[in-house]
Amino acid sequence: MRIKTIEKLCCPFDKKDLKLDIFTKDINLNILEGILTCAYCKRKYPIVHGVPIMSPDEYRQMELEQPIIEKWKLEHGLSDMQLVPKN
Ligand SMILES: [Zn+2]
């Protein structure tokens, strides 16, 4: 997905702006892997194979998303990668 397209996305939970961290791009500079973080509610939405996974909480498949996040944590030395913040 192109950066310009991703920049138009907002958090499905509260419609606030998302911060983009890019991990992998293809030769056309499309984003293949990255993570979108809501500045407001701190939810994180992974971009996998160029597709942002932005389901509302009740439809999120954490068992699919979490292994991807764990891989990125190792590869990119990330900490604090809670997908949905605990209250
Ligand atoms: Zn949010």
From TrEMBL:
It comes from Pedobacter agri. It comes from the Bacteria. InterPro entries: Trm112-like. Pfam families: Trm112p. SUPFAM superfamilies: Trm112p-like. This is Trm112 family protein.
